[in-house]
Amino acid sequence: MRGLMYVQRGRTLWRSAQASRRLQVSRLHRPARQLQQKRVMEGEKPWALISEVGEQGYLEELSDILTQHFQIIGHRDFLRDPQLYGEKIQAMFVWDFKPAAEASLLSSLPSLKVVANGGVGIDHLDVPYISSLGVKVTNTPNVVDEATADIAMALLLASARKVVEGHQIATDPKTTHIMQCPMGEEVSGATLGIVGMGNIGYKIAQRSKGFDMRILYHNRSRRSVEDEQAVGASYCQKIDDLLKQSDFVVLAVNLTPETTGLISHRELSLMRSTATLVNISRGLVVEQDALVTALRSGKIRAAALDVTHPEPLPRDHPLLGLPNVLITPHVGTNTYTTTRKMMQKMVQNALAAVTGQPIPNEVKP
Amino acid sequence: KYKEIRVLKTLLLFELLHVQLTNCEDKPWALDSEVGGEFGYLEEQADILRHFQIISHRDLLQNPELHGPKIQALLMWKYCPTAEPALLGLLPSLKVVASGGVGTDHLDVDATADFAMGLLLASAREILEGHQIAMDPNTVHIPQSLMGVEVTGSTLGIIGMGDIGYKIAQRSFGFEMKILYHNRTRRSVEDERAVRGSYCERLDDLLRRSDFVVVAVKLTSRTTGLIGRRELSLMKPSATLVNISRGQVVDQDALVEALQSGGIRAAALDVTHPEPLPRDHPLLGLPNVLITPHIGTNTNNTARAMVERMVENALAAVKGLPVPNEVRSQSQ
């Protein structure tokens, strides 16, 4: 384990070096529009509460996206003197669910105009409650779609073709021969079942088409004929039909009361024993105990999860001990390009709310 | 008409022989590595081998004088057993070395193209590292610093636009990737249009412009060391190299240097030279390398189809019939 920590530190240092290389490049290409906005705002910048820069918060090299338009204060610093800072704060940025927009915090922010979320999912925000305080809620749809669809495909392929196991064998000190294993599942020509055919689900369908996959989808509402034909997708009004026929089931729904525990014992029993479950929505969409049972008993072949509940899982959780589970730590939007776009959109929304302009991505209660 | 009758007679003969083979114990002998175990065929494929009486390499070596002369076919699955002079010298009745699982199969196109995409995406989005962090007993928080590179909308450069290269292009098209390709010959206008691919007559152009470079060439004297120090230096520092052809196509020492110095961002390799790498090889120690043990065709469906093809070829050769996939030497 210590070895892994050293490797991780090495990687972090190496990555910072890479990041600063990229930062140098990106600084040179800052658009003129942003510089203009900066001049306009050169007076008093509005105050915004954030989690933190660095550590578990925003990447240092991207923090200028925030500071360009806002005077930021980290949650920890805020808590040292809430009376002093509380009145000044007009915007709150929520990134990776932090800071938590709970009553105890919101009540100390009398001037708050907006809770601006980074990311499209807002199941962690009590929108009716926040709105009742006269505070707007915003999110960042659309900019997250492509990176999230890409991660769904990455997880599907990595699980199907045993990429992680392959790497572990290839780099194992004890490996002396190329062996027959690991054997994977065919992706080309397989049946993909997409549960939740919103923007992200549809992008997943577009990507799968190139693999000659047969595409089924289940959604609250049916998509247009043109949409279906463009990707060769067939509608399954009943989720059971999708589950019975799919080699790969991808969950791309929002988390709502209707979708909580959507995939449980019954649904997993309907799936093929050779099928793979891929979850890129929210951990709570899947009943995790049922999933553990299904994976252990061979009811399904494998699972690939970018989301769990909680995140991260407790270190003794049974999911972590199963050989047929691939888990990534919620990296669905983790590219510099997408993260930058999300932060820009989040700031744009907050700025509009604070200056009384029309808000691009308001989430109504 | 005469030809027709001859063809029919041949087919009938083959059918009779086929029936005979499966009905009696006078099946031809074939040498293979072994069924089951770490290095042999999967149990699921053992039934395909029923056309032969099988003797394993290990058993042959226990009594080569007795077993050697019986063997008419050598079934070589993924280079095992190796058709070296020492072995071939023990097999005076050998009619055919039937190779399966690598190289000239053509049944593996889809699976290999899929795997190339799998490597590309896993490397770009740090799947391996993500999984390691998610599983690490010391992980307490979701890390913010695990950043990958965008695949959608990026530029993919395919070196070698044969069947596999083109299937890779078809798959990448769904990710809205801009596709460049370099090949000995240019593809048709329709082919290019279907994937919006642009031909790069000069490899250098492709290398300079690509975010992902996928190597999908055959190994020949011309492609050995195709990607060397110079080629790697032309690539972007943010670029990823994906190799699914053969280890020798890439100058591995140059690759190590490029990866260590930040000349390129990362590499994802299903093939190395040798396979596997010696355990102290520098590639194994680099954080920005993903290596898989030549599993580009490892799916049950594809493996089965390849074993079937290999056996079919071996049977045909043993029976003196036209061999479907005979590989002639370049001098012929």
From TrEMBL, chain B:
Domain D-isomer specific 2-hydroxyacid dehydrogenase catalytic: 69-327
Any GO CC annotation of this UniProt entry: cytosol
Position of the signal peptide: 1-24
Alphabetized UniProt keyword annotations: Oxidoreductase, Signal
Pfam families, sorted: 2-Hacid_dh, 2-Hacid_dh_C
Location of the D-isomer specific 2-hydroxyacid dehydrogenase NAD-binding domain: 117-296
Entry keyword Oxidoreductase: yes
One GO MF term attached to the UniProt entry: NAD binding
Keyword Transcription: no
Family the UniProt entry places it in: Belongs to the D-isomer specific 2-hydroxyacid dehydrogenase family.
Protein name: Glyoxylate reductase/hydroxypyruvate reductase
Gene name as annotated: LOC118283167
